Amino acid sequence: MKKKSLVLGLAVVVAGFMALGAPGVAKADTLLTGPFLTGTFNFNIYTGTGVTNSAVFGAPNNYTQSASFTYTGPLNFYNLNGQNYSNTFGEFFSTATTNEEGFETAIGNSITVDGVASTSGDFETMVDTFLARTMSTATGLTSYISITGQTWGATFTVHHDDGASLYNTNSSYTATTGTAFSDPQGWQVTSSGSLNSGPFELDYVEYNGSPSELQVEATPEPASLFLVVGVLLAWAVVYRKRLMA
């Protein structure tokens, strides 16, 4: 598999500001350097066999949900092992979280694996189980990762191998607009207009074995920066008046 790049106009309102990450492909690849999209995102991860490499909106029916969690940090994930080498979730997520302890902190010490929510007593064991799992193989095992968050005026570059798609969604996470990219045997740079403010979904398919890559760069648009600065200044004025009252 080789990487793809999507340059997509988007907007993201997430806890914290933004920053972005890097993915992996079947051949040596030039990774993005940031700033990486950083914030709080919901991850839903599915695995299956004999399924399409296409990352269309909504996981295919023949996938099984492997894990779900809320993650805070940069979208900067990759495993650059060669084809047919180790390709675990632990290796994929370690580029953003450094190690297992970092991953546990990033997901707020809570995870659901195979439909079972963790408790304080079994959290670390469940994390071990998830991170040790293989994302994909050359013989058919495939993973589908759905990432949801909030958009706000920024330009995004999504760098990935295999399938990926980016959508505006409504409050029920039904796709309204978006672009899908499914060819795992090449790479491309595709640009589109800005996505509307509000919820978004980024879907990624890891297909036919290592390496694996998914990173998202974000450059705030000037209008959005002015809006954010204006809001912060307004809060500062209100706060100062309260102090002086």
Morphology call? globular
Low-confidence stretches: 5-28, 182-193, 223-231
Mean pLDDT across every amino acid position: 74
What is the domain total for the residues?
1
β-strand percent reads 35-45%
State the end-to-end CA separation: 63 Å
Main sheet properties = 8 strands, antiparallel
Order of helices and strands: EEEEHHEEHEEEEEEEH
Assembly context of the chains: single chain
What would you report as the Rg, rounded to the nearest angstrom? 18 Å
Helix content: 10-25%
How many strand units? 13
Helix count equals 4
Class per helix and strand makeup: alpha+beta
Strands of the widest sheet, in order across it, are 6-5-3-2-7-12-9-10
Description of the molecule:
This protein has 245 residues and is an alpha+beta fold. The chain has one domain (3-244). 20% of the residues lie in helices and 40% in strands. The chain has four helices and 13 strands. The strands form two sheets. Strands 6-5-3-2-7-12-9-10 form an eight-stranded antiparallel beta sheet, covered by helices on one side. It has a five-stranded mixed beta sheet with strand order 4-13-8-1-11. The longest helix has 23 residues, at 222-244. Residues 5-28, 182-193 and 223-231 have low confidence and may be disordered.
